[in-house]
Description:
Blueprint: H1 13-23, H2 30-41, H3 50-59, H4 64-100, H5 106-129, H6 134-143, H7 148-173, H8 175-197, H9 199-206
Amino acid sequence: MTDSAPVQTRPGPLKRLYLWVLSWADSRYGTPALFVIAFAESSFFPIPPDVLQIALSVGRPKRSYLYALTAAAGSVLGGILGWYIGHALWESLESFFFEYVPGFTHENFGLVKARYDEHAFLAIFGAAFTPIPFKVFTIASGVFEVALGTLVLASTIGRSARFLLVATAIYFLGPQVKALLDRYLGIATFALLVLGVGGFLAIKLLL
């Protein structure tokens, strides 16, 4: 009697997309890919740019700050696109986002509006700095007529602080951080996605 071979299951579409993002860390186009992914994640792309930023920084710690600034610039510019989608194109694209883009639900939009009614700047800063899906906040800022300047300022501060914090840890703490990230990179970066999906639970508690 022979043992049957283990059945290999194919990763789901979100995990395949996550692995595709990570694959750019081994490419000479890793830095421009980081910019594009950060740009897209601010309006529709589901995988956070931290995934690629961490992988690139682990491989080349001396360029950690360059990667952080690249991610921040792409993310802020992508946020402007998100604001424009909400401000000018939402009636045409609303059904697409609610049906296909993770994080977009009518309930989440209601939660974001409540935060904007309280303090739009702090709400955007919190979403920019934490794993809460940033794209929902950028598009909602256009829908709910938050000033574009408020979005740009809050997202610049929040996103820069988030990415520079990672860069600082890798650059200054050196081999210890690199060894931990080498060992647990897959778990740590995929956890960002899980935290993002559950991020709106925190908003409910705050409200």
